[in-house]
Amino acid sequence: MTAITGTDPRTAGPLEPTAQASSTDHVAELAGRAAHDAFALENLGRERRADLLDAMAAAVERRRDDVIEIASRETGFADAKLNGELTRAVFQLRFFAAVLREGSYLEAIIDRAGDTPMGPRPDLRRLLVPIGPVAVFGASNFPFAFSVLGGDTASALAAGCPVILKAHDSHPGTSKLSYDILSEAAEAFGAPSGTLGIVYGLQGGADLVAHSAIRAVGFTGSLNGGQALLDIVNGRDEPIPFYGELSSINPVIVTPAAASERAEQIGRDLVASFTTGAGQLCTKPGVVLVPRSADGDRLVDAATAALTETAPQLLLNERIYSSYTAETAQLRQRCQVATFDAAASAPASGFYVDAALFEVDLAHLDGDLVREIFGPVSVIVRYDAEQVVDQVASALHRLPRSLTATVHHGSTADEDLTGRLTAVVRETAGRILYNGFPTGVAVSWAQNHGGPWPSTNSLHTSVGATAIRRFLRPLTFQNAPESVLPQELRSDFERIPRRIGGVLTLPSADTGTSAPASATR
Amino acid sequence: MTAITGTDPRTAGPLEPTAQASSTDHVAELAGRAAHDAFALENLGRERRADLLDAMAAAVERRRDDVIEIASRETGFADAKLNGELTRAVFQLRFFAAVLREGSYLEAIIDRAGDTPMGPRPDLRRLLVPIGPVAVFGASNFPFAFSVLGGDTASALAAGCPVILKAHDSHPGTSKLSYDILSEAAEAFGAPSGTLGIVYGLQGGADLVAHSAIRAVGFTGSLNGGQALLDIVNGRDEPIPFYGELSSINPVIVTPAAASERAEQIGRDLVASFTTGAGQLCTKPGVVLVPRSADGDRLVDAATAALTETAPQLLLNERIYSSYTAETAQLRQRCQVATFDAAASAPASGFYVDAALFEVDLAHLDGDLVREIFGPVSVIVRYDAEQVVDQVASALHRLPRSLTATVHHGSTADEDLTGRLTAVVRETAGRILYNGFPTGVAVSWAQNHGGPWPSTNSLHTSVGATAIRRFLRPLTFQNAPESVLPQELRSDFERIPRRIGGVLTLPSADTGTSAPASATR
Predict the structure, then answer these.
(1) CA quadruple B54, B58, B59, B60: dihedral positive or negative?
(2) Is residue A391 pLDDT above 90, yes or no?
(3) Is the confidence at residue A203, as pLDDT, over 50?
(4) Long-range contact list for B221-229, CB < 8 A, 24+ apart?
(5) Do B117 and A409 touch (CB under 8 A)?
(6) CB under 8 Å to A363, separation ≥6 — which residues?
(7) Would you say A450 and A461 are in contact if contact means Cβ atoms under 8 Å apart?
(8) Chain B closest CA to A118's CA: distance in Å?
């Protein structure tokens, strides 16, 4: 058996072994246990599962220092970033508890028996039920918020699905400790033992996705990694949904008016955004469309100045490091202008790199030149300010589509242009931002973290309340006796929003669910 | 080029040619036109698209006699069945108009800017937008309600997606006339010309699914046909959702109490159900679990008696006819008891067959014995009445999963058993019926026509209001100027249900959308 061992990015040296790579038999055992306990987890019900998520959140909070410490060693991220991310992960667990208590996510619908133009209709009652055990693959770049403690785990458990995690090889110790905290909290709560499982190693992950008991896969990672898992999914006897968050370049468009008004500010903020998390964010602005004008020059100058004050950046692992080095070397050859940070040059050991900014004319842009590169790099593309809409459309047409697109517009008289640019970018993204930067993804009801291929392969988000829909399937009861119905579909139940006879109906005030205060306690 | 020609099932002779098989170039032209006009169709807006669906419904109603006439020749279905189905298709178009006017389907959510435990949150506003051109493959067995005029077309157009239809080779003339009616209505309404398209022939369908402009596929048909298209989808550079409604055996479970109380009634109704539409319904009860007891014998005797009064049945096409003949021959060899209708024996010409009922003991049941067979046949499986739950679970475990599962329970004192059987069948189906039969699928808000593989490959329904979700993707606007937002996300808009600050909010009464009466005018 192979030992799973993390690496210290600061030295490129190995850390202590975390676990053994999971055998095919072990994966099968975990999957069988998850399938066996799926119904029991569902039967806890909304309110008890909400309590379970709250208990998990509290348990994680109690072990904050321990998980930060191991994550720091395995990822090299600053404690401030890790603390913020852990706060986010804890919030996310509590947020899904609130989503459960509110209950709309069930999409409960009641059509009572009656006459229709097609003849008599039976009593039909629909809601969403959990799909069964879910495999969750965490990402390298968010050891908490998109890993064991992350949104896929929180939303799948909220849905009522057992979760089997694949520990990321880049932070196996963090994954193991996170898993131990969650599973101890689940056990203390009295949740069924098959609620959570974890596997280690590449083959363990492949075995997990191939196992017949697994009913969906949540994945945040590279396009290549996602494609490999998707091939396994496509080869299964029984197809299952694969929710992959894969690759994104997140174009930022700066209009002539925005450049005129805020060139320096945008330039500085751009560098801050693409160096956040050492540029290892799926929402990193990887390409920035800037007018070929004096205002555009000011923006680029400000970005260059900010870059040269940036310290060397520490990448997560050898794969990202090698890829960054190779890709930036290629960009340096193909772009007209290349700026690397000069505040200090990167140490020779460990996965340190210089941040970099490239510049190219729109005429030379193609999808080969600008593609997702993990690391602190972005490419400025200069366009002709006289033809902004056409030039932006032409640029986006040559680039892969993304999670986000951003428009920096001027403060006044720019509304028509902003509307036309919105029409252009909306086909290419799942979130459109204005006068901001795409890094930073709030966990909220309205969030969408998903977009057209290759940014994801689904019509869903992996962040925010509606992420839960990925792990639910509809079930309709026809002429069912009240006693066999889930309580949310019974006639006398009034505690969640339901559609009755085609009319959306809110909970009656005096039987409402727990107040928001308790939902985020 | 190959001429596309229907067949008269009554004589097995060819009808007049309908069209030429579509060339790859023609398919590309249609797909390009759909992509070009997608935004214009979306920009009609909810209310105008609702009017468009109503106009289409009225146009179909005006040509009722014509479409019934050609469908009768191509399918051999009785006029009563065809009239009922056309009424359903017309109702469905108007129903989706009502769904549009109501507006909940947009899932509009507004999170205003504010502070959170993770720091300040921007203004986030989310809704669902159309995914783009959709390919719709109609089914042989519903020339209207699951074909050109069917639910996939209605829900995709409602979503705002252009639709390119694949005419079913079993009723190409009906498909062409249906398409002409819809597209003339669309043109008269002023809808963009790329709103609808149609292709003919197997290669045309394959080219359509492979075309890069197509963003989703709706398919109702056989498992083999669906699998072939799914392989094309999986081979695309850019994966797209494939919504296949494929194969279903729809188990019916008769408890000892139900058999005791209503043996004769259940036996008669069973035959009526599995011979509806000559047994060519995806919800046909293909397997019936009956207790091995005197009550069970009475049920089987009643079914046998009803069967022997049944006239020969006319199947849709040569493929279904050959398959039915081969599959029933095999069942005759493997089952203990076989009953064929004897009221008249089937004519030697055309696709006429005898209805058939088989009986087998649970011990001999396997997934090879009972699988979906299109045509008027069902299999009764006898179980040990002393161990009903275990025996039912054992039977279902050996069978493929389905769109529906049905429990016939007794009138009293059977509640605990009904609950336990519900727990057993819920993993195997998307709709659970009680004391009824699964044929007949009401179009309504709460309907679910979808289930675990192989009945479908998705977490969605193809019938009812929520079918629209298949053709929508989420889009979130962050800090957008009001003027670039879709009207349903603007601060002063109050005409549809929206979630604001986490709280579901109903339209204000005085600005409500059109009344239900106008929605189904």
Answers:
(1) positive
(2) yes
(3) yes
(4) B221/B137, B221/B139, B221/B140, B221/B245, B221/B246, B222/B246, B222/B247, B223/B247, B223/B372, B223/B454, B225/B137, B226/B457, B229/B137, B229/B205
(5) no
(6) none
(7) yes
(8) 6
Q: What is the pLDDT of residue B369?
A: 83
CA distance A252 to A258: 12
A506 inside 8 A of chain B by CB:
yes
The DSSP letter of residue B456 is: B
Residues of B in contact with A415 (CB under 8 A): 481, 483-484
B436 has a chain A CB within 8 A of its CB = yes
Does A402 contact B at CB distance below 8 Å? no
Q: Look at the block and give the residue holding tokens 């309580």.
A: A487
Across residues B222-244, what is the average pLDDT?
Answer: 93
Of A91, A124, A448, the CB nearest to B444: A124
Structure ipTM: 0.96
Q: Is A161 a catalytic residue?
A: no
Residue type at position B91: F
Both tokens of B378, joined, read 């069902």
Six token digits for residue A235: 């080869």
Name the pLDDT band for B519 (thresholds 50, 70, 90).
Answer: very low
DSSP state of A250: -
Tokens 């089937």 identify what position?
B346
Helices (H), B120-167: 151-159
Q: What amino acid is encoded at A310 in this protein?
A: T
Q: Is the pLDDT of residue B510 over 60?
A: no
Q: What is the pLDDT of residues A447-475, one digit of tens each?
A: 999 999 999 999 999 999 999 999 999 99
pLDDT digits (tens, 9 = 90+) for A223-255: 999 999 999 999 999 999 999 999 999 999 999
Cβ-count burial A403-441 (b if 16+ within 10 Å, e if not)? bbbbbbbbeeebeebbeebbebbbbbbbbbbbbbbbbbb
DSSP 8-state code for residue B287: E
Strand ranges in B297-376 using DSSP code E only, listed in sequence order: 313-314, 337-340, 352-353, 356-361
Where b means 16+ CB within 10 Å and e means fewer, A320-341 reads: bbebbeebbeebeeebeebbbb
d(CA B378, CA B369): 11
Can the peptide bond before residue B192 be classed as cis, meaning omega within 30 degrees of 0? no
